[in-house]
Amino acid sequence: MSDTAPDAAPAPEPTEEDVFEQKAVRLAKRERLIGERADAAGGAYPVTVPVTDTIPALRARFGDLEAGAETGVTASVAGRIVFSRNTGKLCFATLQSGDGSRIQAMVSLAQVGEESLQAWKELVDLGDHVSVTGEVISSRRGELSIMVTAWQIAAKAILPLPNMYSELSEESRVRSRFLDLIVRDRARETVVARSTVNASLRSTFAAHDFVEVETPMLQVQHGGASARPFITHSNAFDTDLYLRIAPELFLKRAVVGGIDRVYEINRNFRNEGADSTHSPEFAMLEAYQSYTDYRGIADLTQELIQNAAVAVAGSTTVTWADGTEYDLGGQWDRLSMYDSLSAAAGRTLSPETPYDDLVALAEEHGVELPPHPIHGKLVEELWEHFVKPTLTRPTFVMDFPLDTSPLVREHRSIPGVVEKWDLYVRGFELATGYSELVDPVIQRERFVEQAKLAARGDLEAMRIDEEFLRALEHGMPPTGGMGMGIDRLLMAITGLGIRETILFPLVK
Fold it and tell me: Which residues bind Mg(2+) 2 (predicted)?
């Protein structure tokens, strides 16, 4: 039991009036710190404070001390006060470091003197950052502590912390992530998990001799995906520019230039809806490997994800936030889009199925027609209705309709489809992969068809990119490529929603 544990039920959240009053009181304390303690103790916001050790380092070194033990070791540590209790001649405070590690500070009359003790009681509040110096001990209750001989404010908090004993609402967590990081372990763990995932991805790529590059985020022409872009304006060039929707066309230029294995972890922007799996701004991984195809890039994608799971969870069996276990191990299933749709719908569906028959099937089952419907979009909508809900294990869905995949090579043996897969994990699309279209003549034809869709009002259709076509005309080797959302990868490993996996998501 901690010496700082509360003796009563948690207090309710402060009202706006309470916060206003607390802010006024704390501002007065700030003035006192600046006026009375500026010379001796550095005021309210000193440039630096004594720090010889971190809280996690002291816990690692002395975490097994028996109750009442003394070490004879003097240390200076700094942290945010998250609990406090002042009782006569002895005050207790719990200091928290950035990773959530905690240590107790014991401020006693015998060690610091009457003036310093009184100043602590009058000037120090919950939420303040403080530096304390003293002997490392274990309290009589077994709490690792600093028996303080000197202390100093490191940063005065003007606003109070939220109630440390109750969860912030999801909306509060998203809008005030800095508070979420202070009060909730899961928030800090998710930040660390994301960093661990990125490190794992880079490590796996390094093991396969990939080169990491950076491509433009501002582009004169958007491309590389079917999505609606954000548009901005460059004053210097007096021209409209697009925020990147995908790095694909620039990464392929790198492949043309001889970087046979290339990848980028980047920020993309799509001016579309936001929901539990979509954000207008998101992190994405794209990778391209020469002399492989969509099956080889699927093998690499599985390895990337499984290695990331092991890095975060220690196993390919991950435990989600709700306690559910999910198995990312083993060899993942691969199924045909058309074959699986035919089996689920109870009739044979193929690239030759008449468009009107697809419309009739959609209407029969209440499947909403997509905007600007074409054969491939109808097939994909029907597949999502009939098959997607049945997927439980990680699954590569293979061989997509030709007319929805303008950057993908036509299947080598099945007419009317392309060599493309989508990877579904935890009920959502996590990644997509292609055998890349490298024939510049056919690529131009595909772009022309996309331009016709754009002329009919399809805001997600691609435009003709002459610079990209010129690069292809210099020769691009057979290549497999993939793209994967980093935010969604975190969702697959942690079980969290997309707004939880993004540190500072866009909110209205």
Answer: 429
The dihedral of CA 295, 299, 304, 310: what is its sign?
positive
- Altogether, the residues listed in the chain come to a count of 508
Q: Which residues are annotated as a binding site?
A: 422, 429
CA distance 66 to 104: 15
pLDDT tens per residue, range 75-95: 999 999 999 999 889 999 999
Q: How many other C-beta atoms lie within 10 A of the C-beta of residue 208? A: 13
Q: Each residue of 370-388: pLDDT tens digit? A: 877 889 999 999 999 999 9
Pick the CATH number of 183-332+393-501 from 3.50.50.60, 3.30.930.10, 3.40.1030.10, 1.20.1260.10: 3.30.930.10
Which residues define the annotated binding site for Mg(2+)? 422, 429
Characterize 113-146 residue by residue with b for buried, 16 or more Cβ atoms within 10 angstroms of its Cβ, and e for exposed: eeebbebbeebbbbbbbbbbbbbbbbbeeebbbb
Place of tokens 């010496």: 3
pTM for this prediction: 0.88
Q: Which residues of 157-179 are buried (b: 16+ CB within 10 A; e: fewer)?
A: bbebbbeeeeebeeeebbeebeb
DSSP E strands in 323-471: the ranges are 325-327, 333-336, 395-401, 417-425, 428-435
